[in-house]
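Question (not urgent): is this output format expected?
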Amino acid sequence: MIVGLIFGVAGVLGLLIGGLTTGFVTAVMMNNAGGAWDNAKKWVETGESGGSGSAVHKATIVGDTVGDPFKDTAGPCINILIKLMSMVSIVFGGFIVAYSPKIEALYTPKPKLEIIEQVAVSQPDTLMVQETTLP
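Got this back:
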């Protein structure tokens, strides 16, 4: 909502597009990494790379400890975050459209105008124009 009030509709669209693309890529990465760590432990437990009890097995246990939350909770939660961002922008869309121009007018610098008054001074046989700057 704050992004929408400060940057307007274009800011909300940018936030949604950025959140969607990075959220999708992060969720896919977390799901795949968690599954890979889980499968690595299962592979070592079959007897490969030293089997159970080896240093490699101890490392894969740590990887599995990190991988399970990745694939089971963190990756799917990003999907919920993407949906939440979309719903909040829809709910506050009317508010953003109505009030973002007013807020933008507060922080947009106003151009400084210089008003010049032209005064015609009549003298015998000549006509002169004198420019004066008004405060």
